[in-house]
Amino acid sequence: MHLEIVTPDKKVFQGEVTEASFPGAGGAFQVLNNHAPIVSALAKGTVSFTTAEGKQSMVVDGGVVEVKDNVIVLLAEKVEA
Questions:
Q1: Domain span at residue 32?
Q2: For the purposes of burial, counting CB atoms within 10 Å of the CB of 65, is it exposed (0-12), middle (13-18) or buried (19 or more)?
Q3: Rounded distance between C-alpha atoms, residue 78 and residue 48, angstroms
């Protein structure tokens, strides 16, 4: 899957991931390959994802995530490493 994490200032991450977990406004959820299309608001919390280099995580301060056709786009208000 392809993941992009974008803030109003810059693109924070772009690359291939095998899974990703998000702090959804209604509760945390995980996205795996071939996930059904979804758009979800995000609460403040930790976004984690696994790349070929291993597990990575960062804190987002709200935003929205869209999953469609194995492409995940996260528009975050603010990201803390």
A1: 2-80
A2: buried
A3: 15
Report yes or no: 76 and 62 within 8 Å, Cβ to Cβ: yes
Identify the residue whose tokens are 């984690």.
48
**Using an 8 Å Cβ cutoff, are 2 and 15 in contact?**
yes
By the 8 A CB rule, do 44 and 23 touch? yes
As for how many domains the chain has, the answer is 1
Average pLDDT over residues 59-70: 97
- pTM metric for this prediction: 0.94
β partners of residue 29: 22
Confirm if 47 and 71 have CB atoms less than 8 A apart.
no
Residue 81 has pLDDT above 90, yes or no: no
